[in-house]
């Protein structure tokens, strides 16, 4: 593996680990059982030079496949976050990729039971940035395959420099 790729992977993994490790314990305790019924959310992707994509997406939790990470479930049950499958931010991004041709790739981290989003629309987080996930203006306290979405939520993936 190229040294720059290794460096980027380590930084992305560290950023994801810090984000997940700093999640308050109540994030899991306050989750309520949900259904995996499809919900309609607004998905926005903001790159370093502005909005790369914005649309309403119908989504629910499902298996996600990326070139780098392979195929894994992304339905809110990841890491024990929710007792049953629910719609999630990363599943919404994946649905946008399939329905609206928004390319993305992510690395799977088994220790977090989640993906780290590495690239969206050919914009990479790289060694000095990462893709931050927020819902309704608040960064998610857990990974993108763990956070439960509700109808009408505003999901944002924002390129964020260190």
How is the topology of this model organized?
Layout: H1 3-21, H2 26-29, E1 39-47, E2 50-59, E3 62-66, E4 70-74, H3 89-100, E5 104-109, E6 114-120, E7 123-124, E8 129-135, E9 138-139, E10 154-161
Parallel strand pairs: 1-10
Antiparallel strand pairs: 1-2, 3-4, 5-6, 6-7, 8-9, 8-10
Account of the protein in words:
This protein is α+β, with helices and mostly antiparallel strands and 162 residues long. It has a single domain, classed as Beta Complex (Ferric Hydroxamate Uptake Protein, Chain A, domain 1). 22% of the residues lie in helices and 38% in strands. It contains three helices and ten strands, in the order H-H-E-E-E-E-H-E-E-E-E-E-E. Strands 2-1-10-8-9 form a five-stranded mixed β-sheet. A three-stranded antiparallel β-sheet has the order 5-6-7. Strands 3-4 form a two-stranded antiparallel ribbon. Strand 5 (104-109) and strand 6 form a beta hairpin. The radius of gyration is 14 Å and the shape is globular. Residues 1-27 form the signal peptide. Keywords: Signal. InterPro entries: Transcobalamin-like_C. It holds the Pfam family DUF4430.
The percentage helix is 10-25%
Strand order of the largest sheet: 2-1-10-8-9
CATH fold-type name: Ferric Hydroxamate Uptake Protein, Chain A, domain 1
Global geometry: globular
Report the CATH C-level class.
Mainly Beta
Main β-sheet, in a few words? 5 strands, mixed
CA radius of gyration is: 14 Å
The CATH architecture: Beta Complex
Tally of DSSP β-strands:
10
Low-confidence stretches: 1-31
Order of helices and strands: HHEEEEHEEEEEE
Number of domains: 1
Distance between the ends: 23 Å
Alpha-beta classification? alpha+beta
């Amino acid at each position: 593996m190229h040294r720059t790729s290794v460096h980027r992977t380590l930084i992305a993994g560290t950023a994801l680990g810090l984000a997940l490790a700093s999640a308050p314990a109540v994030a899991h305790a306050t989750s309520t059982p949900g259904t995996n019924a499809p919900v309609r959310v607004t998905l926005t992707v903001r790159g370093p030079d502005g909005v790369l994509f914005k649309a309403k997406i119908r989504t629910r939790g499902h298996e996600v496949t990326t070139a780098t990470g392979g195929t894994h479930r992304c339905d809110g049950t990841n890491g024990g976050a929710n007792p049953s499958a629910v719609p999630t931010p990363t599943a919404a991004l994946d649905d946008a990729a399939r329905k609206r041709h928004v390319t993305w790739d992510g690395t799977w981290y088994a220790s977090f039971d989640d993906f780290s989003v590495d690239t969206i629309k050919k914009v990479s987080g790289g060694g000095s940035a990462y893709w931050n996930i927020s819902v309704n203006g608040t960064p998610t306290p857990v990974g993108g395959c763990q956070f439960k979405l509700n109808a009408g939520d505003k999901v944002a993936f924002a390129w964020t420099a260190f």
